[in-house]
Design a protein that fits this description.
The protein is an alpha+beta fold and about 70 residues long. Helix content is about 45%, strand content about 20%.
């Protein structure tokens, strides 16, 4: 596994913070013992969102490499 540290400019850091905040409070419905229950999901951390975005960008760039 490769470890990287990324420093975002202020504008992108703010955007990432807003993306994270937008995930707070979404309601999911889960099934437990035959009952459907609404559950409020926790906020997704900014670092997890950034990692997912980076992974998607890496995969996309790799797919476009010439063979």
């Amino acid at each position: 596994m490769k470890s990287v540290a990324i420093t975002l400019d202020a504008e992108r850091a703010e955007k990432l913070t807003k993306l994270s905040g937008a995930t707070l409070g979404k309601i999911a419905h889960i099934s437990v013992a035959g009952r459907i229950l609404p559950v409020q999901q926790p906020k997704v951390s900014a670092s997890k969102i950034a990692q997912a975005l980076l992974n998607a960008a890496i995969d996309s760039a790799f797919e476009n490499l010439p063979e």
